């Protein structure tokens, strides 16, 4: 159990798509195909399975947009290994994004098919794919705003047609009704501001269709009058609807996570939990090259081709590209959404460039054949033609230059493959439950402290013991130690997390009161000072202060920094910090340990200083377990004595 | 109905006089919009949003033997940058793309032969040099790039 003592309604706070998919695959394999697999293997390999499905769908998508088989094949190869997508779909990563990107590309493919053909069948299948997307990831809001934006831009640019009307109307009605079947979404589909764009464009497209119909019946004179009356009525109804909706509070305004995408400074000021996750940091320039390599160069070239020969689908690609680039700039985690569109545009560009040079080579070969057949026949005519068109002609690339350019582009493609393989093996496939490092003589040292500590908890504590730790380790404790936790990674209740933060950063007396209120039996902290593990709780300490400060206004960040505004662990650190519960728990008995030969005992290898507050006693807790390399430390909360 | 609307309009015009506006609907050409999109891409690739939120220094400083030397590239960590470094990187990304666009323009449009040659060779040079420079920057930033 988690979120003690509140509990959590799992059905209404979780997207069921990935669990349903894993269960369906397991059922299919066990009962219909009659192969015995464990559900664990199905879950582990779902990421790669759906990534290969995404590769197939990207081939169809690119072929649909560019009518070019070559571009489709290149895009299928590129999305199979693009590091931005691989980072979230390695084997063993069982998270919403595994199936969400496949559902995203499938929905967009069916939408473009529906707009290009105007058939209600494709629009209805798009609604079904949209249901699958809604059930898998919170990012479905991106689809529900991009498709109305695309319809709006098509109307503005003058590409409105009956196909667009049929596609959008069918998709909006069926899609909204279906998305309301998912318990997490429910009536948010018509109530929250994030879905308002779809409704607005739905109304607008009905108006545009009605106006065009009336235009075809009435003459010019009466049509202008009709437009004036209709415009007046429509604008007044819209204003009334918006004002009443927002005033009565029926339409909820933009909330936390999505508002922080539109206004990046919002999370930093008001919601520290969202700002503290390292994946939610904005993107620096090098992450783009690291996650996309050659595609950052080919991506604007693909945009250039879309602008050169625009069509309905290419306008969609331009909108998708621009919006997803902005969102990726705000949050590094959304590189996942940028990767498919980069691949599609990049492969279109690469295919067109290849074709330019390949046609030159083919022209050269055909010229040779023609020269051998008719050497003297048409020379006079050719001379006359040459004189006339001497001024303006297409640059005639030589045979060798064209071959060299094809070799250069192929070399770029090959370097993309090497880069992707290196990035995947070095950065995106290390397990985070077992740490590895190279020793001074090159051999590998394994740190298995996490599993050691969780299994100690599992075997040496009462089955109904409650563990208090920071929310990063909640899922791991619930799964491996099989114990109840106070907060876990779902972070749906910021106040509860703030209370845990307060218990960690205040002094021992106040912390003991909070722990007694919540029935806590054990406290778990992470400490990396012995081996130099830099993702421990002391490095996260300031985030605990900020999040605890949202619950208790007396916790201020400047109290925990010294007079020079630095966060220090040694004797020059702030006294509030050196007397806080988390410091005492992490550094207890560390003054007895010599970590490096030429440094005094108690030398912290992460912060590179000696610890400040030494030789203290713990009154409210006692030490229960410290793992082999001091990474995980568990303390038992002592019960208060009976009154005498 | 039209009489009622005309009456409404004329009565409105007697009280307030609407100004003489010469509004035109501006329809930019697709290449103008593309240039604007490239500029927006430059801003995002340069990590301007990262600069706004995290507020890094514009260049780094290296201390050695009594003097201070400026350092352009933040070494070691991947998702962090100095302000100048971001603009540098985005510049080379865009120059590489513009090189490829120049190649395409040189080979598909009819123009005088001299200009076709200049465009093609400039494009090839821009693209090749930008690619090599970006890989050099990344090797500075992530030590051990493409090594086991």
Automatic annotation (TrEMBL), chain A:
Keyword Coiled coil: yes
Pfam family for this entry, one: STT3
Keyword Metal-binding recorded: yes
Cofactor: Mg(2+); Mn(2+)
Cross-referenced Gene3D superfamilies: 3.40.50.12610
Signal sequence segment: none
Transmembrane segments: 6-29, 41-62, 68-86, 98-131, 137-157, 164-184, 196-214, 226-252, 288-307, 314-332, 338-359, 394-418
Family membership: Belongs to the STT3 family.
Name of the protein described by the UniProt record: dolichyl-diphosphooligosaccharide--protein glycotransferase
Species for this entry: Anaeramoeba flamelloides
UniProtKB/TrEMBL annotation, chain B:
Places the protein is found: Membrane
Top-level taxon of origin: Eukaryota
Keywords: Membrane, Transmembrane, Transmembrane helix
TM spans (from-to): 31-53, 90-107, 119-138
Coiled-coil parts of chain: none
Main location: membrane
A Pfam family this chain is assigned to: OST3_OST6
Membrane topology label: Multi-pass membrane protein
Keyword Lipid biosynthesis: no
PANTHER family cross-referenced by the UniProt entry: OLIGOSACCHARYLTRANSFERASE COMPLEX SUBUNIT OSTC
Similarity section: Belongs to the OSTC family.
Protein name, entry field: Oligosaccharyltransferase complex subunit ostc
